[in-house]
Specification:
Radius of gyration: 20 Å
Number of strands: 11
Structural class: alpha/beta
Helix content: 25-40%
CATH architecture of the domain at 6-19 and 26-63 and 74-254: Alpha-Beta Barrel
Distance between the termini: 43 Å
Length: about 400
Amino acid sequence: MRRPSVLLLSCAAAALAAADLSDATTLGQLALQKVLQDSREVFGVESNDSSRPYANWMSSVPDATPLAHLNIPGTHDAATWNYSQATQDALAYATRCDGGAGPAPAQVYRTQRLGAAAALDAGVRFFDLRFAFDPMDRDLVFWHGEALLSARAAVDDVLFAFYAWLEAHPSEAVLLSFQYEGGTKDGAEFDDAAKDRLRGALGSDAAERYVRRDSGRLGTVGESRGKIVLVRRFDMGGGEDEVLPGLHLGPGQWPDNDRKGFELVYNSTSNETAYVEDYYEPSDLGANSTVAENIQAKMGAVKAHLEKAAGGAVGTNGDGADSLFITFASGENDANVPHVFPQTMALGNGTEVTPDGGVNHQLVKLLREMRGSRLGVVVLDFFDEPAELVGLVLGF
C-alpha cells in the first residue's frame, strides 16, 4: 500500500508552482509531481481564472466562527468531471470483470465539468466522493454507481492532492464526504480488506497531519484551517465509527431519496445533528413527467431546506442555529421518459421546454432573495454555471 511521506509535503507549494523541471529539482518534488499526475483524472487541474476571488475566502473569517455558521459551496460526485463516453469505452475491459451488465451511457453519471482543483480555486469547500475497490480488488478508486471513473487515480493519490492544495492555502478548510459505492460489481461489499485499505489511507503520516483527528465534532474555522474535516458516509462497525476522525453520517441513518429532508444525530453525547436534504430523483412524479416538472420538484425541496437552514430553529430542542445543514441541489431522473440527466436537471436543456433554466439558474434567483442568510453546505452539480452561483452561495 502506498503511503506518501510527510517529507514530500514540505515541497508541495513549490512543486505546484513550478512551471518546469531543473537540475535543482529535489526527489521529493519529483515524487510529489508523480502523485499529483496520478490523481489528475479525478482531482483535476487548476483553474485558468487568474483572479480566483474566492480561492482564500476563509482567510477573512474569524477563527472562533463555527463551521456550522458558514455558507459552504459543495460539489456532488466531484470525481465525475472527466468522465465521458470515451472514458467509459476505454475502461470497458475492466469495469465489469464479473460479466454483469455494464454502466449506462456516460451522461447518466457525469455531474461536473471541472475537477476538485478548479473547484477549490473557485471557492468550493465540500466534496462528495464515492470509493470502492478497483475491479481487481487491489486499490481503492473512485466510482459513480457502476461507472469506474479512473483506473489510475487511487484514494491515496487524491487525498494527497487535497493535502498539497491545503499546504498552499493554509487559511482554508475542506469537508470531504467519503461514501462507499455499492453495486460496482456482483458481490462487491465494504469488507475487511476494503476497510483495512481505507484505514491505511486515513492513518498515514500525511493524513495524521492534514485530516483533523477529533471525532463527532464539526468544530470551528480556526481549528480546521489547513485541514480536512472528514464526513464519513460508511460504517466500519465494532465501535470504530465513534472514534475515527470526522463526522459519522452512516448509510443506515440516511433515508433514500427523502423529499422532506431528515435529521441525523452524529454525536449522541452532545446531540450534534446534521439536517440533510437529498431528494436526488423525483421518481414520485411518475415515469412520464416533464423536464420542467422534475426541475420544479427538486427546486421545491431545495428551497424548503434552505429556508429551514436560514430559520435555524428546528428539531425538538430548536438547536438548528448551531447544527450542520447540507442541501443537495443535485438531481436526476433517469427512470423518466424522457430521461432527465444530471446536466439537464442542473442547467435545463436550453429550449422552451425549460424556460426558467435548470435548478442552478433558479437557485441563483433564490439566493439573491436570501442574501445574508445562513445556508450551510449547498451541494451543486455543474457548479460553474451560472458563473455567479458559488459567490451567491458564499453570500459575497
